[in-house]
Amino acid sequence: MPRPFHVAFPVQDLSATRVFYEAVLGCAVGRTDSRWIDFNLFGHQVTAHLVDDAPGVMGTNATNLVGSKAVPTQHWGVILEMDEWEALAERLRSHGVAFIIEPYTRFKGEVGEQATMFFLDPSSNALEFKAFADDAAIFATS
């Protein structure tokens, strides 16, 4: 079984970040400091670090075409089980989260078919959550 990953990311407002990750995404809060917060994101440790200025990091508009959608080139997230993904999509909708890319099935009927969705956190960090009907397709090439 893979070990949890750790990722640290810049934020502009720790209070808004905590509300979003804790109340909207459902993350448990771990260690905290006046300039950072650890979250448990589906078993992975993600750390929000307060930054005073991060030019070129947050709110980037760079995209690449994946399938038929313009995907933010800088993004991260978790591959969930399909029922977890569906529950998260519903949770996000119920909280009024605006999607960059609405939840949908990408590569339908092809190798790598996946459910995916993109949205921003309060500091404009792009997040992608996806799920595969068959986990063997996660790294499949043909």
Task: Throw out a few tags for this protein.
142 residues, alpha+beta, 2,3-Dihydroxybiphenyl 1,2-Dioxygenase, domain 1, 4-stranded mixed beta sheet, 17% helix, Glyas_Fos-R_dOase_dom
What does this structure look like?
Residues 3-132 form the VOC domain. InterPro entries: Glyas_Bleomycin-R_OHBP_Dase, Glyas_Fos-R_dOase_dom, VOC_core. Pfam families: Glyoxalase (PF00903). The strands form three sheets. The protein has a four-stranded mixed sheet, covered by helices on one side. It has helices spanning 14-24, 82-94, and strands spanning 6-11, 28-32, 36-41, 44-50, 63-66, 69-72, 76-80, 99-106, 114-120, 126-131. The protein folds into two domains: 1-52, 2,3-Dihydroxybiphenyl 1,2-Dioxygenase, domain 1 (Roll), CATH 3.10.180; 62-142, 2,3-Dihydroxybiphenyl 1,2-Dioxygenase, domain 1. The chain has two helices and ten strands, in the order βαββββββαβββ. A hairpin with a 7-residue loop joins β8 and β9. It has 142 residues and is an alpha+beta fold.
Secondary structure tally, helices: 2
CATH superfamily of the largest domain: 2,3-Dihydroxybiphenyl 1,2-Dioxygenase, domain 1
> What is the first-to-last residue Cα distance?
24 Å
Mean pLDDT: 92
CATH architecture of the largest domain: Roll
Strand content: 35-45%
Domain count: the total is 2
Q: Assign a percent range to the helix content.
A: 10-25%
Regarding quaternary structure, what we see is single chain
SSE succession: EHEEEEEEHEEE
Radius of gyration: 15 Å
Largest sheet: 4 strands, mixed
Given helix and strand content, the structural type is alpha+beta
